[in-house]
Amino acid sequence: MAYSFSHMVHSMHAKDVKLLMKQSSGKDMISFAGGMPNNDLFPLKEIEDIFHALPPDLKKLCFQYGPTAGYPPLIKALKSYLEKKSLPVEENKILITTGSLQAISIITQEFVNKGDIILTEKPCFVGALTVFETYGAKIIGIPVDENGIVIDELKAVLKKLPKKPKFLYVTPNFHNPAGIIYSLERKNELLETLAGKGILLLEDDAYSDLYFEQGDKHFKLPMKALNKSDVDVIYTGSFSKILGPGFRLGYMLASPDIFDKAETIKQALDACTSNFCQILAQQFLAQGALENYLVFLRKEYRMRKDLMIQSLEKHMPEGVDWHEPKGGFYIWVKLPAGIRSKNVFRESVKKGVVFVTGRTFDPKGKGDRFLRLSFANVPKNEIDKGIGILAEALKKTMTKRDKFNTIS
Amino acid sequence: MAYSFSHMVHSMHAKDVKLLMKQSSGKDMISFAGGMPNNDLFPLKEIEDIFHALPPDLKKLCFQYGPTAGYPPLIKALKSYLEKKSLPVEENKILITTGSLQAISIITQEFVNKGDIILTEKPCFVGALTVFETYGAKIIGIPVDENGIVIDELKAVLKKLPKKPKFLYVTPNFHNPAGIIYSLERKNELLETLAGKGILLLEDDAYSDLYFEQGDKHFKLPMKALNKSDVDVIYTGSFSKILGPGFRLGYMLASPDIFDKAETIKQALDACTSNFCQILAQQFLAQGALENYLVFLRKEYRMRKDLMIQSLEKHMPEGVDWHEPKGGFYIWVKLPAGIRSKNVFRESVKKGVVFVTGRTFDPKGKGDRFLRLSFANVPKNEIDKGIGILAEALKKTMTKRDKFNTIS
């Protein structure tokens, strides 16, 4: 089926998609690939009830143009939602965007000219890499460890750069693909490192509501909330993981100066974001339905994460490593030395399992000792079977390499 | 009310908005300003019924990501819709965009670098002007008469240009703001003039379904359908006027080469257009609901147009001129020599009527002998009262000018 196939390949490396197409039509595959929410968990009834209950004037407004900055009641509802995350909403302004990718795109258009430098994490969300490449930026990736971006590596890069980078793009909470959350200490270190340097921090926070444990509240605090220095932090968020990507609803929280230019750019991109989607999301937020839905989602995704961790422990050979995520959608698996993710992919696809290879998330197309497994959009009863198949594919790849090493 | 105010000022000149804000909060004004459909005419029940009747799998898909090019069944439905307009859908590809303004924005990003020349009509749709300015284009406007762009003026400009323009942007069917439709002859002349010159034609066709008379079918044919020469025509269309701008749904029909780059740019703008909106629109199209709705819309807008023409004839002083539109939303009113639209605006706002001044649609901010009246989004029973007030404001402006002339 062409359509479900296009879903599976969402965020996959172009070369891997080619291989997948050669091997199969995507039918009956177990997919750990797509970075999207689970189709079976969307709040269908809640949204249908919300639309049905709208007063006629609001229904009409769903069909009409809205202001470029966003539907004012949604901005208001977002303000109190973001205030609960300790974000400084009063000194900043909110721009509603057509998905948070549009926010990243707008900021890139606002600050970056061809040849300008953008710093990212390595690995990095592939959608952001696509945006930065499209606008001709030179991308430099800074490694990430289990507590966040590696500060010494960042400092070393900053020293060597021929010119000041336009911004550093980070996803501190439940990283895509690395699955980690920055420690509070690392967040503060990063802010200190950037202080006084005039380098913007672009903080992408698409996943922070999807934690598995209540835990330490400060752990999940956005960097824009922690920031006490002079660093200009632009914060972006999304409804894609807490309502549905089909609404194409995101937002940015930025200082009034940055907001003003961003609003002008948005006007030239699509005039305004869908009122239809904005009004439904506003009601979902303002009526308190989001909170109940999040409780449900956290439980569901946690169950899938637990199943996948158990299966990894059961099936994976020695030398394979992973970090158990505290939230989000992903497990970032480190392969034994000398094993390349794309070779595992080749074996795995033959046997009916797909994932995303590590190189996909590297601006230079390297970093292929990793693979990203998404536990979000896969039926629970397929997880163990799929990880079993993946482990077999990995073992076969390891055997081949051993043979090759013996021969050569 | 801040929100209805923001609706009223949609597409108004910034200076006029300032004046309006000084004079009033926008409350109880009669607005001939907004270029949007009428809130009371949207197909609320049809869309609610469509969503309610969707099978569960399609409802889930509404919430999910879709392919960058668009929801495949919507592309299929659009193909047969565009085939009925004699458009060459087989040799071209369709890209679904977040409103047709996004299509214009993508084409501008694809072809235009800072300082490049874009040709437009004069007057020109203000949204397109905003896009072209944002990307740093040099805009040159070619006058329009009641049959379309003036070919001799176009030829004269082409001769004088220091470098080849990247494209010519036109809205041949029910022009915004001029209210005209290109004659078949003029369309063919324009294609002949561009033949062999390597200048793209960007054809914006947001209004062609909103005709008032069945008339000559060829009259409404898109230029992309008429084109037999080597001119590369990019055709854009929109659901904003035939379903609702709140869906932010548009599309482009372009050659495969242009499509490929456009798809890459779209991926970096918002990844994909809302599946929620696309699936509702696809059902609206595929179930045949659009055709019935258009019959209703044409009748309703025609009634408003007739009322406004009658009122203009009744109230306007001598020396005021207009062209009766055959479709669309607008009447473009020419003021007596020496009278400036912004001065009439000043008087008119004081008395409670707003419209859009002519300079708004001129890349150079001139062309102020005209004003645009929209009959689309105003209650029928306010039209005569509003035109009466406007006529009084105009007469007062004329008297002032006469006094001034006498004194000086």
Automatic annotation (TrEMBL), chains A, B:
The keyword Protein biosynthesis does not apply. Its cofactor is pyridoxal 5'-phosphate. Keywords: Aminotransferase, Pyridoxal phosphate, Transferase. It holds the Pfam family Aminotran_1_2. SUPFAM superfamilies: PLP-dependent transferases. InterPro entries: Aminotransferase_I/II_large, Class-I_PLP-dep_aminotransf, PyrdxlP-dep_Trfase, PyrdxlP-dep_Trfase_major, PyrdxlP-dep_Trfase_small. The keyword Transferase applies. This is PLP-dependent aminotransferase family protein. GO terms for molecular function: transaminase activity. The lineage of its organism: Bacteria, Pseudomonadati, Bacteroidota, Flavobacteriia, Flavobacteriales. Residues 47-387 form the Aminotransferase class I/classII large domain.
